[in-house]
Amino acid sequence: MKPINIFPDIETMQKGISEKDYAKPYSGPIPIEMNNGKLLRNSVETKNPREDSVKFALMNLGIPSYYELMQFPLSNGKAYYPDFITSIFFNGRQVILEPHGSVDYSYMKKLNEFIVEYHFYVVLISNKPPPKLKAAGANPEDFIDEYWFIKGFYNTENEIKYNTKKVEKNIKKLLRKPNVEIAPSPL
Prior knowledge:
- The protein is α/β, with parallel strands linked by helices.
- The protein is built from six helices and eight strands, in the order H-H-E-E-E-E-E-H-E-H-H-E-H-E.
- The chain is 30% helix and 18% strand.
- Strands 1, 4, 5, 6, 7 and 8 form a six-stranded mixed sheet that branches.
- Residues 1-37 have low confidence and may be disordered.
């Protein structure tokens, strides 16, 4: 499946049309093609070691992805800024990997609103055990497409190698599912 490019090119952006103008509800797959996005490379800096683990896992597996490409406005007036928009498509929906530590009901609700409006396949990665989330009224199954619990998925530099391997293992499991495709790199 070839993604349809709805992101602006450099020339359009130089004319003053922002990426936000292009982030509209869309029923098909959101493309990964963008002429000036933050395609993952070693030089792309993430905000924390959790995000580093996901970055390294995607790079190790050769999966083209963008880091914090753009904000998506939500109909409730808020916005969502996904961490990793990957080139993986599951059942025609582009996969987002969202590593996060503090997961609660309001965060899950925001992710769900994003999924409903934009039709991405959102995978939340956290160190919170699902039973604790369920007890707090934030059952992942009620809000998001997939939840990867990784014990020890903390924001410490000494956990990056361990967490990278765990994230890689989960990505490989996702790639083995039927109806999974990887779109070619835009470069």
